[in-house]
Amino acid sequence: MGNVDELIDKLARDGAAIKPAPHPYMLSLKWMGWAAAYLIVSLMFSGFRPDLASKLHDPWFIAEIGALAGIFVATSLSASLLSFPDIHQMRRIAFAPVVTFALFVLVMLFAWRADNPPAPLPVHSFQCTLGITMLSLLPAAWMFYVMRKFASTHYHLAGCCALLFAFSIGAIWLRLYEVNNSIMHVIEWHYLPMIAFGIIGLWLGKVMLKW
Amino acid sequence: MRLSLDGDKRAYAEILQETSRFLRPFLAKRLSFTNEVDDLLQEILISIHKARHTYDGNRPYRPWVYAIARFRLQDYLRAHYADQLHHASDLSEMEEYLHENVTETDISYEYISREVEKLPEKQAMILRLMHQEGYTAKEVAEKIGMNESAVKVAAHRAYKVLRQKLER
Description:
The complex is a heterodimer of chains A (211) and B (168). In chain A, 75% of the residues lie in helices and 0% in strands. Chain A is mostly helical. Chain A has one domain (24-114, 125-209). In chain A, helix 2 (24-46) packs across helix 4 (59-82) and helix 2 (24-46) packs parallel to helix 8. In chain A, 39% of the residues are buried. The model of chain A has no long low-confidence stretch (mean pLDDT 94). Chain B is mainly alpha-helical and 168 residues long. In chain B, helix 2 packs across helix 3 (34-50) and helix 7 crosses helix 9 (148-167).
């Protein structure tokens, strides 16, 4: 008991004024703003796919990009909430990525069924995964760097959301850059690796965000 | 807590005191020893200090504190049980030290009965009466005209002889 009192005295002496962390909504908006800027700059360097104007009339392509954008927003929001010990007392919103992922799977299922006769598979394969990974590395590192300043008590999920957010940027970039209409290829080399990186994020969260 | 975030050290000490008051029973319910409660309480207070920038004073304080307390408690229990498992012996490691199969034995009821018959007549009779017929030492003494302590001494000597034979 005496030790606890001594500790409290010591902590109180160290308790200088401190700037509270921003609200998770503001944090999430900031992350999305930076990520959108990074995506635009990347697209300016790589260029848009030449058939983008015609693809914008394809409802399943629009739905796919929309669902990806949903994952981008939901994972950013969730990662920001999960950075707080009490999830900022908004537990339900933190699980928004589950809904957006379910929506995304549905969209991909319908897009796959609509891809009849199937579009030819492109000649390349793992290069897409590599491209998405390379583009996502910087936002991923930045996310973990920022999130380490907080105090997550759900570091596995926080790490997963951070990587999914970073890889959703890469996935959107590649869909807007690469001329490719094969849904099978996109599922196999774009989105399944993205989910795999989300799983890696569970482990990375423990390594990077434990405090 | 809002005052303490602004640098009011007295308010900060008060909120930490209050926090330790309501956390102590929470921890005591989940841990066995008082020293464990004290150690963990100190760890939680340090964590609260480190993470105080994640509390803005606009939402309830207790859920924020309990989130940190639960997190540290889980960490502590995980480490505690991992340590216990580390020191626990694997059953396969113990097998080499077990000389005999304890669930199966060569010693049967018939074997023991034969050995009892080989004992001096009086000792054999006492064991038969006590263990087959179910008489007490006092009843056996009355039946064969001995005093009770003599029956007990005879039975004890018989057990000793039997034990030596069975251990061979």
